[in-house]
Amino acid sequence: MKRCFTIVLLIAFALVANMSLVSADDAWWAEAAAPYAGSTIRGVSESTPPSNYVADVLAAQFTELTGIHVEFETTSWDQMYSKAINDMEANTGIYDFVYIEQDIIYSYLAQDYLVNLTQFAADNAALAAADYDESAFTSFADYFKNADGDLFGVPMEAFVKVYLYRKDLFEDADIMAAFEAEYGYPLAPAETFEQYADNAMFFTAYGESMDMDLWGTTVQGSTGHPASTYEFLESIGPSFGLYNWGINLDAGSAQSANGGALDGETAVEALSFWLSMLPYAPPEATSSTWDEVASSFAAGRAAQGWVYGENAAWIATDESRSAVTGNVGVRLPVTAPGVIEAAQMGEGYIGYYDGGAFGIPHSSRNKEATLLWLQFIGQPSVQAEWAAVGARITHTATFDDPLIAEQDAKVDGYYTLLEEQGPLFAGAPPFPFHAQVREIIDPFIQRAILGELTPAEALSQAAMAVDEELARLGYGM
Length: 477
Description:
7 strands, D-Maltodextrin-Binding Protein, domain 2, single chain, 2 domains
């Protein structure tokens, strides 16, 4: 899922990248691409830091090596999704590669929209780049494979949603003393939901008393965008112990009476807590997607919050866009008792392992040229600068790169957290009906945010509506 980039960074990284070629064998790229030189391949993705780096840096490098032009459209999440799926459904061939978000891959595989990259590369051995190796990817690549282990998308971003907090506020001696005097215990980054709530209330009141543009927390609570449903189902819910959207696929139900959990006590507790944070969030919270949450935190308008890790790097380091550089703390998200232990045992997860890949639609008219392009961006040699800019890592070796070690210190150990604690997070459940069911849940979450439904009412009605859709799709019959 999201976000933006800066001209200054792009120019800087482009200059660095142009000082040395990324491929170990430039002659091979030119030779392999010779039959396709002068052609144009087109792609679409969401406007995120990793995607913009691809559009502004990697595409130019690839064209210089191969003579193949890359037209890469970066747009909003909803436009990206609709443009890609409409093209594949109609078989129009507008796009040669599309962004595949982790949570939608199962729908695409069920519809047979994508080229099997493992098989296609094997069938075109002359196009196999020596520096490209599917086994070099992190385990995140497994989310883009079928049951046979064949890859259908080259991972291009992978990150987790973390707890960010303002070190300058949490480590201020006067603020710490005021908090302890009021709450009776030391101020610290939250480890429990009770502590998180205390922090949120305290900093909201503190900001008001000091006439500061400051609130106690972020909330990704848009009432006109699915971002709010995603925050609840993929971040808040799992941190309380609600997994797989509360859907029991074997039972074909989301209702607790039938084996589901979407309307159960844990889900209601999670939604109640999340909604209770709205009074302590910036006024834009109810119109915030992932983009606005990142911007709000970067502007210094929240003391703590849930922020997608892909934004961590620029928030912590880019002074042209962030007012809190040098003061960003990074921690695991808050969890309920037992949730981390369950995740460590493989019986749950603490949040969403987000990200995406580029795949080739069957409708593409330029599959061979696009295969070269995907291999190019899948090389280990292009990963480090890309990871430093976009806080994304898709290759295991990238964690050990000196550039990432340097960046890790600036981002309060985010990359170390991703490497060491990443297995506690999980991708979306393997639902081929992902989009249909999420669209059904959206209005109930949004009505709860608006106060039109209580958490219990919203989730009860959502679970019933989900079950109706599952029955229509043939589940639980």
